[in-house]
Amino acid sequence: MITVSPLEIDGKNAIGLKVDLPNSPPLLAIIGRTGFVMCGFLNTEAAEKFNVAAAVVSGVRNFEDVLKTEIKKTTSKGQLLGVKLGMTGKEAIKAFL
After folding, report:
1. Strands 12-19 vs 36-38: parallel, antiparallel or unpaired
2. Band of the pLDDT at 16, cuts 50, 70, 90?
3. Residue environment code for 16-44, b if the CB has 16+ CB neighbours within 10 A, otherwise e
């Protein structure tokens, strides 16, 4: 099942995407205007190649987990927008809104 949910983060709009996968944790992403925060399924090398602003969290099962979990990786474009390793997913997505 694929779920797309509008999310409000500090008064700004984002989109939550959840894909339930067989025998696997879900694929999760929170998408902002200029970039996105995604679970560990994100291939950061590909995101870097395409010059995408993105950040990665791991061990998440829902949107709330994505927002409260610390960033493990980010692309150089994500860094330019203010994303730093160790900040929360919420702090990162705010940089992309």
Report:
1. unpaired
2. very high
3. bbbeeeeeeebbbbbbbeebbbbbbebeb
- pLDDT tens digit sequence for 18-57: 999 999 999 999 999 999 999 999 899 999 999 999 999 9
What's the burial of 1, exposed, middle or buried (CB within 10 Å: 0-12/13-18/19+)? exposed
Topology at the third CATH level for domain 2-95:
Hypothetical protein Ta1206 fold (3.30.1980)
Q: Given pLDDT bands bounded at 50, 70 and 90, which one contains residue 95?
A: very high
User: In this predicted structure, what is the pLDDT of residue 90?
Assistant: 98
- Tell me, what DSSP letter sits at residue 12? E
* Structural domain spans, the chain: 2-95
What lies within 8 Å, CB to CB, of 92 at 6+ separation is 37, 55, 71, 74, 78, 83
CB 20 within 8 A of CB 26: yes
